[in-house]
């Protein structure tokens, strides 16, 4: 797998069939996604450039994707305003963030090592 070119984009699929195509560098901000898409992992997600989330619905996954891009966009900013998150999504987003690993840590501590390591692979 390491001899093949790593795709710039990945597809995230919700449990209700919605597909979100986003930059690998943004997707890999989430630790779980980064580990699954690592060419050294041997996971099928690496070859397919596609991850399915059987416990995350489309509305929540869309907000997760928004967050990943928001985090990437403001990676070098010092004073970043909070994202607008509807209160009715808070619990589901918290559960998704816990599963996706590392998302809240990155928000609090800046860009962090997850995104840096992933973008180095492209």
UniProtKB/TrEMBL annotation:
Broad class of where this protein is predominantly found: nucleus
Entry coiled-coil feature ranges: none
Annotated SUPFAM superfamilies: POZ domain
UniProt subcellular location: Nucleus
Keywords per UniProt: Nucleus
Transmembrane segments: none
GO biological process, one term: ubiquitin-dependent protein catabolic process
Sequence ranges assigned to domain SKP1 component POZ in this UniProt record: 9-72
Entry GO CC: nucleus
Summary of the function given for this chain in its UniProt record: Essential component of the SCF (SKP1-CUL1-F-box protein) E3 ubiquitin ligase complexes, which mediate the ubiquitination and subsequent proteasomal degradation of target proteins. Controls sulfur metabolite repression, probably by mediating the inactivation or degradation of the metR transcription factor.
Protein family (similarity comment): Belongs to the SKP1 family.
Protein name in the entry: Elongin-C
Record organism: Didymella pomorum
Gene it is expressed from: ELC1
């Amino acid at each position: 797998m390491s001899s093949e070119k790593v795709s710039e984009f990945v597809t995230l699929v919700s449990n209700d069939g919605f597909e979100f195509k986003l930059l690998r560098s943004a997707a890999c901000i989430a630790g779980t996604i980064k580990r699954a898409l690592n060419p050294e992992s041997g996971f099928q997600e690496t070859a397919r450039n596609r991850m399915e989330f059987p416990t995350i619905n489309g509305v929540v996954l869309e907000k997760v994707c928004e967050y990943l891009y928001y985090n990437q966009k403001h990676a070098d900013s010092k004073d970043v305003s909070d994202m607008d998150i509807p209160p009715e999504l808070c619990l589901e987003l918290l559960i998704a963030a816990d599963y996706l690993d590392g998302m809240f840590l990155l928000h609090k501590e800046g860009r962090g090592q997850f995104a840096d390591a992933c973008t180095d692979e492209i």
